[in-house]
What we know:
Helix content: under 10%
Mean pLDDT: 86
Shape: globular
Number of helices: 1
Amino acid sequence: MFTGIVEERGRIVDVRLDGSDAGNEPGSARLTVHGPTVTSDVGHGDSIAVSGVCLTVVERDGDTFTVDVMAETLRRTTVGALTAGDEVNLERSVTPTTRLGGHIVQGHVDGTGTVVRRTEHPAYDEIRIRTSADLAPSPAPKGSVAVDGISL
Length: 152
C-alpha cells in the first residue's frame, strides 16, 4: 500500500526487455532505477511504487534498485514505455506507523489514460483525463485516483 505522495523523482538507469534471462516469462522486463531516498532502507522483496506501479525489489546496489516487470504490467501501465534516462515518481510502501497523508493507493494499475486538457486556476489546476470505456465507470463520485503515482 502507498499514500500517493511522491517521495522523490528517480531516473531509469537500465531497461532490459525480455526478462527471460533473469528466469522471468518472455515479454517481461528488468528495470534498474536510481533513487537515493527510496533505496536508503530498501531490501530484497520490498515494494516501491514506480510512477504508481507497485514493483518488487530484486536487487539493490547503493542508490539504485532493480525490479522485474511482468508482461501483463508492461501492457497495462506506462512502465512498458520507459527507457533509460526517463524520470519516474518513486514512493516506498507504507508501514503500520506511517502517516497516511494522501489516499490509500494499492499500486495495482487498472489502465492508463490520456491528459486531454489542463486548465489553470488561481489556486489549482484542473486536469481532464480520458480513459478507455471499460475504466470510465470505475471512479466513485468524489473518489480518488492516482496519476503516475500521485494521489488526486
